[in-house]
């Protein structure tokens, strides 16, 4: 069904005038230099994200302004001003320096959303090391893959998470130090022999630190992302990315100085850093950090309690709010909300229409990826929303639809969504994998891996992935990563993993498994394999469903044909099966 | 006939792939049994199916679902709904 366009008031009639009004005019020939000049920069032309997000405010009029409002999962609350964040992140920079961490070293974080994560990550940036945040709901295998590939020297983690990954630690030869954050002494048995205590290290560290002279092209943050084949790839971003994180915070999230902003994403995914750290703080905005996870009552209560004005969340979360019903929001005052945004997977029109009366405004979908580092296509506050569309490219971004020969297609045609390279927050490499990096660029375009179309008026519409990567609750999951773990189970001989459509999460992981001789496809064995994968991968990545097959469809070269598994699962045409191995 | 606890335990064991011993009343799905928020939704759907019959389609109101975070909370709710008879 077609949904009506949600029309906006004229910008000057809005309660708060949006920062970006004339977006049609500002998209083409956009002078990035103007934005570059709005940043503070370090003397000598150096650039560091920690300076732009924290120190520049701490050294100026925002010194005593709250930067971080923390709501702990046990109901605790803490506030950090920009001045305090500067002092604390300086201390952590000194801690790392003392430990011999140098510019370019990788420091990884496997932590829940506690203030220490934010302090330690910015401390890492201050010494010029590369920060790598990991999703706190990962099991040991995804953590191992990422720590091994990155060659992380230091891991900052928490007691319960440390215990979850204890078995992989001996297999990480490059990992020199583990720092344990025992928040509020919650854990009575926090670390293992040889671990370092965050609190002790910080109590000895000076709060004075001179930020490393990092250039705009020096690496700052890396995020792992999944592909169809092979292990996850580390997409590396440089300090210059902050230019676009700052700009899109202003244009798309529409930050104003007195906003209270809440991004619900975990920093283990790119949204949680680009928009849960860098965009709000480079704009000097106060943000709420919630340690706990989704709960409809808690979420509405937080909006009311903190008078959240700008909210950035995800389609799965919105659909979970829908499922929890319309009665709960009526009990809370949500009138502080001025602007709501969503990212992670396409936001379905039904969710936008549901949100209209609940929030008294449209939810604004936008599009970007780990690789793009910042929002590239968006619905802005001043723009009419076409429910189901991801919006239009942000200023300075040239987005097009290409056919499979990378030639441009006209409006209304489905094809490869591609972006003209050169935007400030573009990833600079995949860690130690420049070959795969180079393969993302064709005929002068960055090929996103997403299929989309553009309508006559320039709105973009998501169609699907061009590869086998699974999008579950906004998290990209590489099928190979899951299949590798399934194959470690003693009864499994073949495994193929697909994304099965799901009304809440968009897709869930479904595995097809063939058993070794001597094993029977029983319910007990299915449970055993499920348990095995959930222990190694954790719920967010492990299969939700396992189906036994006598054998899996393969090409003649022995590759499992996931496409065929998916077509059969969904009852769709099987397409070209000429490469299928004869059984 | 199986008790409410036994029926809930069977569902939890099957969906979360945990062992029966782990499904104690005080266990939290998120903290102790490795569930995520999507699992919580799947669990709700499974209770609804389990406790529906030809005479009654059992539906758990959305605002109640937000408070079913431990095994005991689920059992208490189901018993209050008369499922223990």
Characterization of this structure:
The complex is a heterodimer of chains A (583) and B (85). Chain A is α/β, with parallel strands linked by helices and 583 residues long. Chain A folds into two domains: 11-451, Rossmann fold; 470-570, 2-Layer Sandwich (GMP Synthetase, Chain A, domain 3), CATH 3.30.300. Helices cover 29% and strands 22% of the residues of chain A. In chain A, helix 3 (49-58) packs across helix 4 (82-98), helix 3 (49-58) packs parallel to helix 10 (270-282) and helix 9 (242-251) packs across helix 10 (270-282). Chain A is globular. Chain B is an all-alpha fold and 85 residues long. Chain B has a single domain, classed as Orthogonal Bundle (Non-ribosomal Peptide Synthetase Peptidyl Carrier Protein, Chain A), CATH 1.10.1200.10. Chain B is built from four helices and no strands. Chain B is globular and about 35 Å long. The N and C termini of chain B lie close together (10 Å). Chain A binds chain B through residues 137, 293-297, 316, 320, 323-325, 327-328, 472-473, 504-505, 508, 527, 530-531, 534-535, 538-540, 544, and chain B through 13-14, 16-19, 30, 34-39, 41-42, 61-63, 65-67.
């Amino acid at each position: 069904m077609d949904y009506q366009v949600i029309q906006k008031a004229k910008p000057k009639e809005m309660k708060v005038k949006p920062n970006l009004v004339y977006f049609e005019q500002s998209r083409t020939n956009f002078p990035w230099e103007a934005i570059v000049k709005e940043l503070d920069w370090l003397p000598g032309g150096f650039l560091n994200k920690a300076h732009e997000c924290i120190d520049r405010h701490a050294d100026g009029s925002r010194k005593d302004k709250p930067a971080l409002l923390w709501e702990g999962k046990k109901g605790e609350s803490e506030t950090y001003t920009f001045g305090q964040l500067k002092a604390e992140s300086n201390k952590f920079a000194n801690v790392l320096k003392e430990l011999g961490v140098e510019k370019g070293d990788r420091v990884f974080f496997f932590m829940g959303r506690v203030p220490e994560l934010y302090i330690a990550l910015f401390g890492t940036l201050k010494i010029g090391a590369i920060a790598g945040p990991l999703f706190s709901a990962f099991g040991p295998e995804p953590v191992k893959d990422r720590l091994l590939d990155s060659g992380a020297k230091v891991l900052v983690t928490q007691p319960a998470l440390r215990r979850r990954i204890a078995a992989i630690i001996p297999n990480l030869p490059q990992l020199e130090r583990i720092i344990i954050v025992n928040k509020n002494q919650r854990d009575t048995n926090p670390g293992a022999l040889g671990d370092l205590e965050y609190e002790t290290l910080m109590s000895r560290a000076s709060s004075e630190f001179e930020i490393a002279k990092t250039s705009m092209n020096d690496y700052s943050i890396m995020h792992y992302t999944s592909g169809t084949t092979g292990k996850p790839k580390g997409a590396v971003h440089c300090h210059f990315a902050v230019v676009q994180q700052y700009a899109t915070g202003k244009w798309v999230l529409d930050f104003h100085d007195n906003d209270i902003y809440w991004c619900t994403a975990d920093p283990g995914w790119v949204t949680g850093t680009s928009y849960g750290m860098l965009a709000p703080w480079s704009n000097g905005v106060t943000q709420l950090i919630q340690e706990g996870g989704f709960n409809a009552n808690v979420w509405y209560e937080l909006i009311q309690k903190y008078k959240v004005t700008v909210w950035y969340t995800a389609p799965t979360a919105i659909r979970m709010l829908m499922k929890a019903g319309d009665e709960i929001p009526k009990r809370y005052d949500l009138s502080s909300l001025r602007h709501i945004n969503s990212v992670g997977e396409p936001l379905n029109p039904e969710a936008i229409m549901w949100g209209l009366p609940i929030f008294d405004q449209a939810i604004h979908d936008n599009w970007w990826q780990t690789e793009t580092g910042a929002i590239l296509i968006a619905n802005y506050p001043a723009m009419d929303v076409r429910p189901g569309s991801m919006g239009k490219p942000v200023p300075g971004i040239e987005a097009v639809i290409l056919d499979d020969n990378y030639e441009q297609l006209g409006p209304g045609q489905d094809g490869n969504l591609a972006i003209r390279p050169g935007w400030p927050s573009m990833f600079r490499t995949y860690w130690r994998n420049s070959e795969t990096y180079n393969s993302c660029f064709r005929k002068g375009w960055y090929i996103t891996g997403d299929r989309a179309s553009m309508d006559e008026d320039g709105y973009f519409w998501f169609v699907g992935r061009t590869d086998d990567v699974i999008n579950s609750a906004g998290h990209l999951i590489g099928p190979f990563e899951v299949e590798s773990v399934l194959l470690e189970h003693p009864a499994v001989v073949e495994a193929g993993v697909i994304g099965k459509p799901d009304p809440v999460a968009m897709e869930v992981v479904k595995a097809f498994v063939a058993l070794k001789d001597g094993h029977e496809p029983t319910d007990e064995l299915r449970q055993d394999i499920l348990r095995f994968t959930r222990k190694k991968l954790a719920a967010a990545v492990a299969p939700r469903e396992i189906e036994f097959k006598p054998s899996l469809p393969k090409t003649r070269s022995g590759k499992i044909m996931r496409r065929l598994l998916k077509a059969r699962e969904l009852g769709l045409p099987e397409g070209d099966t000429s490469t299928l191995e004869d059984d | 006939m199986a008790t409410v606890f036994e029926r809930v335990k069977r569902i939890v064991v099957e969906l979360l792939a945990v062992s029966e011993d782990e499904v104690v009343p005080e266990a939290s799905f998120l903290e102790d049994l490795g569930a995520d928020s999507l699992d919580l939704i799947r669990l709700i759907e499974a209770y609804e199916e389990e406790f529906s019959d030809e005479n009654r389609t059992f539906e758990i109101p959305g605002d109640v679902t937000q408070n079913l975070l431990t095994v005991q909370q689920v059992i208490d709710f189901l018993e209050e709904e008369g499922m223990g008879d």
